Amino acid sequence: MTDFFAGISPVTYSPDAPADQLAYRHYNPDEVVAGKRLEDHLRFAVAWWHSFAWPGGDPFGGQTFERPWFGDTMALARLKADVAFEMFEILGQPYYCWHDADIRPEGASFAESNRNFEEIIDYLGEKMQAQGTRLLWGTANLFSHRRFMSGAATNPDPEVFAWSAATVKNCIDATQKLGGENYVLWGGREGYETLLNTDLKRERAQAGRFLQMVVDYKHKIGFEGAILIEPKPQEPTKHQYDYDVGTVYGFLKEFGLEGEVQMNIEQGHAILAGHSFEHELAMASALGLFGSIDMNRNDYQSGWDTDQFPNNVPEVALAYYEVLKAGGFTTGGTNFDAKLRRQSLDPADLIAAHVGAMDVCARGLKAAARMLEDGGLEAARDARYAGWQQNVAQGWLRSATLEDIEAAVAAGEIDPQPRSGRQEVLENYVNRFV
């Protein structure tokens, strides 16, 4: 045991707890909603990188957090793991997620880094077996080290491509070893700053081949989890090849991977792409790509992905409405890709941030479930498109030509009359639930 969270008891569902007590006031993991326990609906995960590896810096200032495990030794990596699993015990969430660089120190060579990685994976496995917390997904950090300054799979240097492929191979192995339910690829630097030094067609081909090798390896080793791509617009390069769900779908189609890869969608990235979170979720569902989510929020005044914990119940409700419409999570879940504010220095702040976020998500999901059960939104949508159920309209979609339709219009059989979209009515309807 460490003393980092000394004095903080496991958090329980206690809706009437005093205001200054850390308690779940809306998240009761055993509450049954729409036929399933809340824990099984939401499948919460803690992000190792933001919670235990982030030092509290920003573009204008360095480290503000003082953590006893900060450093580049295996002893400190094990201490970090000890603290992490103590936090998991306090929160009681079922899952966590990692990048390789979050959990092991960088070695002087690839071989040394991998030895460190394998050792800490075994240590995590022992702690998981003892405690029961599971791995939602693993991934590789192919963006922080200076070798990745020009990308990983899309790098102009083939040696960086090879290093990245070897790293991903080892991370998939580790994810499988720990029973991870997904493996995520996200291109933190898979894009370009300027076309002046970029062969865009070549880089897309490299990224496509890289992903094909990942999918081939998944099948070769019998990894049963999902392969997920996380769209990352403008972060950090201006022109990202994985800009949004629609862009990634086109990429997958181009390289014959649309049946092999799903989406891990983040709220903050959806906003940076000029979309809403629910838009990206609905798009992924419509294209058959919905997999998992990173739950956070942006500061809408900053224009950057600030990775704040969610606190907006109406936004979260609309997101979970799309999740439930898509059939809910299978291998995916709700990963809190969110970090404390750099002034939130205390261990209790880390617990409070997750507790509040889990409550917000529980409120949002329960509101979404009530809306689906009520059926008001779906009835309004059905009514709006009812004309397309008529035989004539169905024929236009199946077999009619432009000449056929023009003849019907010219004969006076068609007389369009605009109808209200009733947006304000539907917004009022949503507000009844949130």
TrEMBL record:
<dbReference type="GO" id="GO:0042732">
    <property type="term" value="P:D-xylose metabolic process"/>
</dbReference>
<feature type="binding site">
    <location>
        <position position="266"/>
    </location>
    <ligand>
        <name>Mg(2+) 2</name>
    </ligand>
</feature>
<feature type="binding site">
    <location>
        <position position="307"/>
    </location>
    <ligand>
        <name>Mg(2+) 2</name>
    </ligand>
</feature>
<feature type="binding site">
    <location>
        <position position="230"/>
    </location>
    <ligand>
        <name>Mg(2+) 1</name>
    </ligand>
</feature>
<feature type="binding site">
    <location>
        <position position="305"/>
    </location>
    <ligand>
        <name>Mg(2+) 2</name>
    </ligand>
</feature>
<feature type="binding site">
    <location>
        <position position="337"/>
    </location>
    <ligand>
        <name>Mg(2+) 1</name>
    </ligand>
</feature>
<protein>
    <recommendedName>
        <fullName>Xylose isomerase</fullName>
        <ecNumber>5.3.1.5</ecNumber>
    </recommendedName>
</protein>
<feature type="binding site">
    <location>
        <position position="269"/>
    </location>
    <ligand>
        <name>Mg(2+) 2</name>
    </ligand>
</feature>
<dbReference type="InterPro" id="IPR001998">
    <property type="entry name" value="Xylose_isomerase"/>
</dbReference>
<comment type="subunit">
    <text>Homotetramer.</text>
</comment>
<keyword id="KW-0859">Xylose metabolism</keyword>
<feature type="active site">
    <location>
        <position position="102"/>
    </location>
</feature>
<keyword id="KW-0460">Magnesium</keyword>
<keyword id="KW-0479">Metal-binding</keyword>
<feature type="binding site">
    <location>
        <position position="294"/>
    </location>
    <ligand>
        <name>Mg(2+) 1</name>
    </ligand>
</feature>
<feature type="binding site">
    <location>
        <position position="266"/>
    </location>
    <ligand>
        <name>Mg(2+) 1</name>
    </ligand>
</feature>
<dbReference type="GO" id="GO:0000287">
    <property type="term" value="F:magnesium ion binding"/>
</dbReference>
<keyword id="KW-0119">Carbohydrate metabolism</keyword>
<dbReference type="GO" id="GO:0005737">
    <property type="term" value="C:cytoplasm"/>
</dbReference>
<dbReference type="InterPro" id="IPR013452">
    <property type="entry name" value="Xylose_isom_bac"/>
</dbReference>
<dbReference type="GO" id="GO:0009045">
    <property type="term" value="F:xylose isomerase activity"/>
</dbReference>
<keyword id="KW-0963">Cytoplasm</keyword>
<keyword id="KW-0413">Isomerase</keyword>
<comment type="similarity">
    <text>Belongs to the xylose isomerase family.</text>
</comment>
<feature type="active site">
    <location>
        <position position="99"/>
    </location>
</feature>
